[in-house]
Amino acid sequence: MTAAVRIPADELDTAARVLEGADAEAVLAWTFGRFPRVAVVASFQAESVVLIDMASRLRPGVDVITLDTGRLPQETYDLIDTVRSRFPVTLHVVSPDPAELDEMSRAHGVNLFYLSPELRHTCCDVRKTRPLAGALAGYGAWVTGLRREQSTTRRSTPVVSRDDGHGGIAKVAPLVGWSHEDVWAHVRSRDLPSHALYASGYTSIGCAPCTRATRPGEDERAGRWWWEGDSIKECGLHPVLTGAGPAADLAASSGRADAGAESTAASAATPGAEG
Ligand code: SF4
Predict the structure, then answer these.
(1) Fewer Cβ atoms within 10 Å of its own Cβ: the N or the C terminal residue of the chain?
(2) What are the distances in angstroms from CA 177 to CA 145, 146, 222?
(3) Catalytic residue among 123, 124, 210, 235
(4) What is the reported pLDDT for 53?
(5) pLDDT tens digits for 59-83?
(6) C-beta of 128 in contact with ligand 1 (< 6 A)
(7) Among the atoms of ligand 1, which is closest to the Cα of residue 224?
(8) Cβ–Cβ contacts within 10 Å for residue 237, how many?
(9) How far is the CA of 95 from the centre of ligand 1 (A)?
(10) What is the pLDDT of residues 213-262, one digit of tens each?
(11) What gap in Å lies between CA 87 and CA 34, rounded to an integer?
(12) Is the CB of 69 inside a 6 Å radius of any atom of ligand 1?
């Protein structure tokens, strides 16, 4: 396995400024031009399929990594196979370390996530965070479907950044400025397959025991770890960011003082979160 290349932060900061507001395909084209080894990390929500559609046209055979936590809904496995047969991708289905799973379940049971927030994070760490860290070794960049309007914790997400949690490789979020409507317009225009659970009222889809459908008016990620109430709806794959972030910075520099506020307001009801 090739060692990860630690990308200079100032190079990526410059790229983030240049690519802020660029269309998603331009961001992906820059990524593939800059890095020989790029992985699209897919949860198989709508954003993932949009990125796979774009990336596989730009680089046929592109690596797609997905985390099989062992607790996914059957509908996610069905969509994984659909995407695999339709798009020219090299799919890597990554599983947790069996020894770590064994140790965790012996110590805390198989439904430990319901017992405390700490044990929920332990489960996400074993089933998601550690497997992703291993899977990204050797890549220069990974691509994620994060969007700023999905939640306040994602509002500051840059389009390009250095991911020091994964060896200093580049983290690229081509859809960062997309709205929920943008995503679904692309899904419809390209006739892309989508996760079956959207039709059952799900607005964000993760592991089966930790996700429920949302009710009208609820935040899109309210169905994730719902028993925790207002906890931060992240599993550890993406750092929790705070602050006004690039959207507001861009608004300030362009005179669009309302852009950051739009982003916040839109976070209230937008299905299709990644991760
Ligand atoms: S979402 Fe739930 S089942 Fe999946 S890894 Fe996290 S705690 Fe475990």
Answers:
(1) N
(2) 10, 9, 21
(3) 235
(4) 98
(5) 999 999 999 999 999 999 999 999 9
(6) yes
(7) 1
(8) 19
(9) 13
(10) 999 888 888 899 999 877 666 666 666 555 444 433 333 333 333 333 22
(11) 23
(12) yes
Looking at CATH, the fold of the domain delimited by 9-266 is given as Rossmann fold (3.40.50)
Give the residue among 129, 152, 161 at the shortest CA–CA distance from 261: 152
Neighbours of 186 (CB within 10 A): 19
Indicate the domain borders of the chain: 9-266
The answer to whether residues 46 and 183 touch, using CB atoms and an 8 Å cutoff, is yes
Taking the C-alpha atoms of residue 197 and residue 58, their distance in angstroms, rounded to an integer, is 29
Query: Cβ distance 174 to 27 under 8 Å?
Result: yes
- Alpha-carbon gap, residue 193 to 44, rounded angstroms: 10
The whole-model pTM stands at: 0.85
**Enclosing H/E stretch for 252:** helix 245-254
Residues 39 and 62: their CA atoms lie apart, in Å, by: 7
Pair of tokens at residue 239: 């750092």
CA distances to 25, 39, 53, 270 from 204, rounded to whole Å, are: 24, 22, 20, 9
**Whole-angstrom Cα distance, residue 61 to residue 55?**
9
